[in-house]
Amino acid sequence: MSAIPTQNPHRLRYALLLAPVVIFLVVFFVVPLGQVLLLSVSDPTWSLEHYRYLFSDGFFIGVLATTFLTALGVTLTCLLVGYPLAYAVVQIGGGFARSALVLVGLSLWVSFLVRTYAWMVILGNRGPIVRLFEFLGLEHGELLFTRFSSTLGMVHALLPLMVMTLYSVMRKIDPAYVRAARGLGATGWAAFRTVFLPLSAPAIVNGCTLVFITCLGFYVMPVLLGGPSEQMLAGLIGQQIEELLNFGEAAAMSVVLLAASLAVYAAYNRVFGLDRLWGEQQ
Fold it and tell me: Domain ABC transmembrane type-1 spans what residues (predicted)?
């Protein structure tokens, strides 16, 4: 007698477990996203006028360029600061590594708004840095409401993400590889450059991708720490909604921002594969 196919009971169980998550994502992510997309082409009438206007507006193109350049600068700064820190934590190890990771992660436990106001106090005209410059008799320009202040705040916010991403891969690199290179006559720098650095390259790409995409949508810090000339796209969207009540144009800007983020993901997937981004490929 031929076997009668039966449905795997585990599949139904897994489907029931996933149902709340799927419903949540559909209600609070897919539906609002669809509404934003529809609003961008239907307010006040059905057309692509908002998109035509945006890509013919020099101011919007400038803000878009500023957003990408700022995200790139923040990403590179996080990498230059985070890589040596993560490398030192891995090499020293032990209790120091645990303490260092706790200190790095402490900022993640504080809201962005609190950290932003802290930087406003530190960089303000009566803040400790300005007072130190005045005490030393040094000339100083405006520190707050500049590209420097907004970049500094975003680096402080995103540095833990870069460090944690780098550390998670670096700690899995077998030290025997570097010792073998040293045993074959390579100097410490040569062993690092030819062995450790290539093995940590996936972490570099992952960290840069996550930081860059996150930075594209930053709102609070660029608005409160940056000046008008450093306005980023998320702040411009908020301005269109709160001050001008131009919901259709704001929706079109949101779609452009989403498309930019998806383009970065698509480029990453094309070159490296998204499975590596989530650590599923060694």
Answer: 64-268
